[in-house]
Amino acid sequence: MRIGLTGGIGSGKSTVAAMLAQRGAVVIDTDAIARRLTLAGGAAMPALQEAFGEQVARPDGALDRDAMRGRAFADPAAKQRLEAILHPLIGAEALREAAAATCRVIVFDVPLLAESAHWRSRVDRVLVVDSSAATQIERVAQRSGWTRDAAKRVITSQASRSARRAIADAVIFNDAIDIAALDAAVAALWNLWQPLTQIPVEQ
């Protein structure tokens, strides 16, 4: 069974991914794949430097992610060029990792799943982790190097909450609940989808 997991920045998606992994799922993190592709010597770096110039690389040869993020937010055309380079490489690597997995449950952690129509055809179910914008901003602002204004810009650039919920087979509303309640919601969904996986239900 292939689950597409998505949610806006600060929604708690990564926490839910970890909870699914604890229950035996293999989690394929597309953000982690993107980071590997943009390390020094990464497969994406030649095309990125050709498209945006040598200055997009830090002195160590890796992508200057902060500078690239700012450029993409400021210039829609730059964002499209960036995605045209990265998304096919990310998708190919994610599918390669899935093909090598032996677990019966594979979770694709895809922040931009709602924006990428081809991902819907790659998964059996879509799970959306949803939070209010105010909660997202508060969580992100607590991260190192982030401000509330930066969080707001990212939220604005992502698919709307309603757009994500529209593609969901299940939604976990992660707002004003504690970690135990979130884990209980994940457990309930995991057990609900067990007949589709033929994995013994967690006791």
Commentary on this structure:
By secondary structure, the chain is an alpha/beta fold. It has eleven helices and five strands. The chain has helices at residues 13-22, 30-37, 45-52, 65-74, 76-100, 117-120, 133-141, 148-157, 161-166, 179-192, 194-197, and strands at 2-7, 26-29, 106-109, 125-130, 170-173. Strands 2-3-1-4-5 form a five-stranded parallel β-sheet, with helices on both faces. The longest helix has 25 residues, at 76-100. The radius of gyration is 18 Å and the shape is globular.
Helix- and strand-based class?
alpha/beta
| Unreliable stretches | 199-203
Largest sheet, spatial ordering of strands: 2-3-1-4-5
Query: DSSP helix count?
Result: 11
The ordered H/E elements are EHEHHHHEHEHHHEHH
Mean pLDDT: 92
Strand content: 5-15%
Q: What is the tally of beta strands? A: 5
Separation of the first and last Cα atoms: 20 Å
Biggest sheet descriptor:
5 strands, parallel
Gross morphology? globular
Q: Over all CA atoms, what is the radius of gyration?
A: 18 Å
Q: In brief, what are we looking at here?
A:
It is built from eleven helices and five strands. It has 203 residues and is an alpha/beta fold. Helix 2 packs across helix 5 (76-100) and helix 7 (133-141) crosses helix 8 (148-157).
